[in-house]
Design brief:
Chain lengths: 249, 238
């Protein structure tokens, strides 16, 4: 269970999150949609403290952190509940494909190198990259890098995986591959929060869709309700813009 | 007998005798570089993480080192450390004989401070140039700061720093020629001693350059191949 209460975050004078309230059940898959600059990514990054929110509370499982008076060990506990898949992959550049998956295991779990390697190989195969184990990220395509990014986030077996626009940096023909992989992953029991611009995917995979604009949650609900029957005018306008391209070549 | 203007034979005949002090020069250069590397990394981290007080001290230290001549730094260490040590000895009621410490030690310390200050700036700039995303990935995968640095950030930063570190190291080898100022008999001092016997200083200086140059050229090659080896993970740029 994730419970976010009145979360606020500003960058200088720019208020990016204006009091977010959101609760997410265990094993729920939540998509966050909205225009760029609406605070979606910031919200996600506040959940694993890549950004430290200015105020509000974040509860994950049995740990609650008040962002105003956060103590280090609680923050650490919250961070340890989740892993993240990044928009631009952020694979460790000095590690091979296999090492990228192995290294987090060696750092976090008390297992031997051989065990870590076996497990990492299994995950590498699972994302369809057997044979690429000794390649460095600089030699891999964006789609391959993101597969490793996903394997790396999975291998620690976290309660929550945060996806920060996982397909936004990919070539159009690679997008569906990665979305398919995320869908496969979503079949496991695990909470997933996905920031995405892929509306069809969000509709297909999510239990709940959250529409954010200008630092607020405008509307949330089941995907059918948000996409077919949005209550708010802003949501309607946003979806209209997204589902009907404004230009035709 | 009339002296020839330049005595080529003499140049080559002195090289073996001057070279007997090559180990001292290299010893000073290597030890100072290793100490300097450690100091440089520490200062760079202190400044990178904006650690209070230490960061300010480092800034002043770097400014001082970069703003004063190497020779003066040598003298300051050579005269300053004995004064400091005997003051400490007096306070604690111990006898302390400064002659027990060889001048080579002071030379190494002075050069280490100097090169450490310069290297810290190389390290700091290379730390800054490692993508922020690498830190974020570490944090999102629950790495401690120490693990992130050791396993991910420093290995990448080090590769970026190698070219400027190479320059520092070559400068260090050549700078050791100043150590004769504090009574260290290195290549340079040995050359001067031999020169004073024959008064053929020009030939001697040619001889000593013939020793420095290939050593530096060799080191440059070695460090270039190290750079290539360590940067095997990055895209090749031809």
């Amino acid at each position: 269970m994730i419970e976010i209460k009145n979360l606020k975050k500003s960058f200088n004078d720019n208020e990016v999150l204006r009091g977010i309230n959101l609760s997410i059940n265990d094993n729920e898959i939540v998509s966050i949609i909205g225009s760029s600059g609406g605070g979606k990514s910031t919200l996600l990054r506040c959940l694993n403290f890549l950004e430290h929110a200015d105020s509000g509370t974040i509860t994950i499982g049995d740990v609650t952190v008040d962002c105003l008076s956060a103590n280090k060990s609680d923050v650490k506990k919250v961070i340890s509940k989740s892993t993240m898949v990044f928009q631009n992959f952020n694979l460790f550049k000095n590690k091979t494909a296999l090492e990228n998956i192995m290294d987090p295991l060696l750092v976090n779990k008390k297992i031997s190198k051989a065990e870590a390697k076996d497990l990492a190989l299994k995950y590498l195969a699972r994302v369809g990259l057997e044979g690429k184990q000794n390649e460095y990220p600089s030699k891999l395509s964006g789609g391959q890098q993101q597969r490793i990014g996903i394997a790396r986030a999975l291998v620690l077996n976290p309660e929550i995986i945060l996806f920060d626009e996982p397909t936004s940096a990919l070539d159009p023909e690679l997008v569906s591959d990665i979305l398919k992989l995320i869908k496969e992953v979503s079949a496991e029991k695990r909470t997933m929060i996905i920031v995405t611009h892929e509306m069809a995917f969000a509709r297909d995979v999510s239990d709940k869709v959250v529409y954010m604009d200008k630092g607020e949650i405008v509307e949330m609900g089941a995907p059918e309700q948000i996409f077919s029957n949005p209550k708010e005018e802003r949501t309607r306008q946003f979806l209209a813009r997204y589902l009907q391209p404004e230009y035709i070549i | 007998m009339e002296r020839s203007i330049i005595d080529i034979k003499y140049i080559f005949s002195t090289i073996p005798e001057i070279s007997t002090k090559l180990p001292i020069t290299l010893f000073i250069a290597f030890s100072a570089t290793i100490l300097g590397l450690i100091l440089g990394i520490l200062i760079a981290l202190v400044r990178f993480f904006h650690i209070k007080i230490l960061s300010q001290i480092s800034t002043v230290f770097i400014s001082f080192i970069r703003g004063t001549p190497m020779v003066i730094q040598l003298y300051l260490v050579y005269y300053g450390i004995p004064i400091l040590l005997s003051a400490i000895a007096k306070k604690t009621g111990h006898e302390f004989d400064i002659r027990l410490l060889p001048s080579t030690l002071f030379a190494i310390l002075a050069f280490a401070f100097n090169t450490g200050a310069y290297m810290s700036e190389s390290f700091r700039s290379s730390l800054v140039s490692v993508e922020a995303g690498q830190f974020e990935a570490c944090k999102s995968l629950h790495y401690s700061t120490w693990d992130s640095l050791r396993r991910i950030i420093l290995p990448q930063a080090f590769v970026i720093a190698i070219p400027t570190l190479t320059s520092s190291f070559l400068a260090m080898i050549k700078n050791t020629s100043l150590a004769f100022c504090i009574a260290v008999v290195d290549l340079m001092a040995q050359a001067k001693i031999i020169g004073s016997r024959s008064y053929r200083y020009f030939e001697i200086y040619i001889a000593v350059s013939i020793i420095y140059w290939p050593i530096c050229a060799l080191m440059e090659r070695l460090l270039l191949s190290l750079e290539k080896r360590l940067s095997r993970f990055s895209k090749k740029v031809y």
